[in-house]
Amino acid sequence: MIKYLSQEQTKLIYKSRAWLTPLILFALIMIAFPLSIDLFGKQTSDLFMIIIVISLLLTNYLAIDDILLEDYEDGSFEQFLTQNKSLFSSVLAKLIILIIYKALPLSLLTILFASVNNVDPFVFLDLFLISFFCQILFLNIFLFGSALGINKGGLLGLIVVMPIVFPVIIIFGQSMTLLQNNSSIDSFLLLSLGISFLITPMFSYLSSLILKMHLE
Amino acid sequence: MSNKIINKFASAKTYIETCDKYFLFVFIPSILLIIAGWYWGIFIAPPDAVQGDSYRIIYLHVPSSIYAQLIYWIMAAWSAIYLIWRVKLAAYLTKSAAFVGLLVTFLALFSGSVWGIPTWGTWWQWDARITSTIILFLMYLGLIALHDSFNNQNKADNLMSILTIVGCVNLPIIKKSVDWWSTLHQPASITLTDNPAIDPAMLYPLILCIVSFGFVLISMGVLVSKLIIFNREKNRNWVKNYG
Amino acid sequence: MSNLIEVDNVHYSINENNLIRGISFGLKENEICHIQGVNGSGKTSLLKIILGIVEPTKGEVHRKENLKIQFHGHKLPFKGFLTLLQNLKLVLSEDELIDAQKFLEELDLHEKLNLRFSNLSFGQQKKSFFASKLVIKNTQVFVLDEPFVGLDDSTTKFFQEKLQERVNDGAAIIITSHIPISMPAKTINI
């Protein structure tokens, strides 16, 4: 497993375009959003919490990029399958690398922009955790989607998984609102931690099954 | 052993033959009944005290809203049958039901929007029901698009069945989260559940519409499934010799 | 001696089209199997069935336990944004890497090691990937799908010699090729 992780890490690091795109996009959205709003009489901190989930959604969709497509098209998955029984470890390694190299920096960026927008420093830790778990769920779901629609472009996958994404948006959007009202969300964070641990192997397994079907 | 028996009775050939035999007996009465139901609802039933004549769209809206959800559960059942007993017919029917479901969900959304203009003053409201219906619409769309994306149809059947069942687990989650979201946000201005008890003079034509609409959908599903089966089994001898 | 791979009455059909109808053969050590057939006759599908990527519709493929297979198909799974050396490091162990560098020297490709893979010509890409497959140790079976397409005559000859060496060392080969091969092989028509 560690071998696969380091392989995926090498691939991602040298492919700087794939690695930087979501970070830059996120930063651009965060810089641009106050400009689109008439700030007179309003506080950016309130609006910031509202916009965060949807910008994470966009950037994570972009973060998945062609991570599966590339290996599918150049035959890497076929090579992997001849050496191993299933694609599970490959897909899981990709997902973990995605989470470490894309979701984690994005969560840190969230904190950075939260401080820029005068969000109460008291909630920074909660905000970091929420955005991190939120992204783990998004990445899982989008990975599943991109596995489903791998030979028909990203849009098909997006349509298919949108119904799964909506509840996540709603629930995390609500938790942002709760955070804004200074309510405690510890139990919710614990729940999302558990769900993240459950869902990551589950969706990697599902995605690997689907990819195997597509290879036939 | 049991598989063989099921497969014999649930073969596409037997299905088509049975459908051909009884199709007109279902199709013609259902068309007549839905016309009667709509005539009764539109011209005979009394106008609503509050909404006047605009309420009459419920004779389209309510049946389609009911079947939009129901068809998904039927699809889930067929998918389960396909995955457990490997009955190919069930997969064909799942796909045809998805087309019918897509149409019906669209009708429900469309008629709801038309009805919304005079009653709510807007054709779209982020009400819990509307939101879950639009998600349902996307689910049907996704299932159909997914099935078409595979070259190997058997794999497509497998995956569509799995996704249908995943979706039916997802449906209650969507419903719960959407309810939670819209109740926290703002109470919806008008929901159907708050409607006062409906007058029998309006109710009877509605029931007639619901029942006959069901049969119209069944005949529509049969037609679609016939297309799908002929397309999928076009190399089989019985299809070549058909008609 | 038991077979490394045994293909037992394999059928394969896509959407009711029968591609492969009942193929059986066995593959022993030191043996080369040349699969022949016209375009679209299901050669690649048969190879994928042998590899275990695709399940046959009917019939079975028995592989010896822990069989080490290497597959070289139409696609080149090296990444264009990595250098040739980085690509090799991803798939080879250290010993194999040294062998691979020697191999590439014989092919006059050792100067290209630090070039990006996407900057190599198609023939060079193909050669370097083929070479990386041939140096992998303990391989018992090589499955090669049209490996000589796009290679010039002398390179084709060179690779055939190298393959023959591996076969003499105990490996077996399943190959599809429209370019005639000079190695002694048993032919299977589908």
From TrEMBL, chain A:
The chain crosses the membrane at residues 20-41, 47-64, 95-116, 122-143, 155-176, 188-211. GO terms for molecular function: heme transmembrane transporter activity. Coiled coil: none annotated. The keyword Transmembrane helix applies. It is a multi-pass membrane protein. The keyword Amino-acid biosynthesis does not apply. This is Heme exporter protein B. It comes from SAR86 cluster bacterium.
From TrEMBL, chain B:
The chain crosses the membrane at residues 21-46, 66-85, 97-117, 129-146, 158-174, 202-230. The keyword Transmembrane applies. GO terms for cellular component: plasma membrane. Residues 21-185 form the Cytochrome c assembly protein domain. Keywords: Cell inner membrane, Cell membrane, Cytochrome c-type biogenesis, Membrane, Transmembrane, Transmembrane helix, Transport. One of its GO terms (biological process) is cytochrome complex assembly. It is found in: Cell inner membrane; Membrane. One of its GO terms (molecular function) is heme transmembrane transporter activity. Belongs to the CcmC/CycZ/HelC family. Required for the export of heme to the periplasm for the biogenesis of c-type cytochromes. This is Heme exporter protein C. It comes from SAR86 cluster bacterium. The gene is ccmC.
TrEMBL record, chain C:
Residues 5-189 form the ABC transporter domain. Keywords: ATP-binding, Nucleotide-binding, Transport. InterPro entries: ABC_transporter-like_ATP-bd, ABC_Transporter_VariousFunc, P-loop_NTPase. The keyword Nucleotide-binding applies. GO terms for molecular function: ATP binding; ATP hydrolysis activity. PANTHER family: ABC TRANSPORTER ATP-BINDING PROTEIN ALBC-RELATED. This is ATP-binding cassette domain-containing protein. It comes from SAR86 cluster bacterium.
